[in-house]
Amino acid sequence: MDTNNLVVLSRGRQEHVDAVLDTFFATAKVRAAAMGDQYLTLWKTLESNTTGGKRFRPSMVLAAYEAFGGQNLIVAAHVGAAFELLHTALIVHDDVIDRDFIRRGGLNVQGSYRDLAQTAGIAIPTAEHRGMSVAVIAGDLALFNAFRLLDRCGLENDLRERLTAILDESMFASAAGELLDVDFSLRAEVPSVEEILDMERLKTAVYSFEGPLEAGAVLAGASEGAVAALGEFGRNVGIAYQIVDDILGVFGDSSDTGKSTLGDLREGKRTVLIAHAVRTPEWAAVEPLFGDPDLTEDEAAELRRVLEACGARRYAEALARDFANRGWEHLASKELPDAVRDEFRPFVATVLERVR
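Request: output the structure for the sequence above.
Response:
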């Protein structure tokens, strides 16, 4: 999910979250060193794969927390860091599933260990298997320790259990969404729009938007109605953002998104765009091109032309606007104070701007 145009952590918030993660990794590396250099190297690699991101999910936690009047940023940063470690775990495992060896323009965990194996003279298939095996271990460590970070917040039992339940639901939903995504890639027929929206909500929107926003609100002592309203806002805006990302993955400007506009077409990625297009008569002419790993720029241009001619792009953009407006309706709830609306209103505007 591209979050270039979303809320980012202020310098003060960033420092608090980074401090929590720095302390966490420093402690882990001391423990790992006692068990051998190989284990220490794994932890260093995992740490390097946690840095360089925008800390988007912690920003959701802290923005909600402060909008509801929360003032203990150290505690909030621990909750935000827990969601960041969850994100790390999920993308490490997602890269294993997708057999990707690059993340954020550099080697990911499995790419690093694949290259180490190749440097040692191990053949490519075995080297790749070693890289993916180590990535599974690294993802497991990040996932487990996301929950451990909540244990170290110093919160009272009831509040800690409530936050743990939100983090658990975020992970639980994302696993369900990942399973759907895997199943979709194996199906001969393209899933329906509704199926894809359900997958994107579970896989990404819950743990990236809904869960972090709920966690920040709960930590600040918001009412149940306010927590529910902000969570629904996050769910709908999260779906809208994912739809927009899928549109930009085909029609975007690579210099802005940092993402190739060939990748999704070569992969044969099932998105709302494609789910709509395959059910139109125009699609038959370009269907053999979709999912071709050797797709050329000219062939990609023809696919884009058909996606526009059959109305798929227009449909997806309208759907993104619809979910963004649903998000706004929940943000306008009387359960939420004006400070929350002021904090998150730009999200809706950003979604609408991205699909113009």
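The two ends are 19 Å apart (CA to CA).
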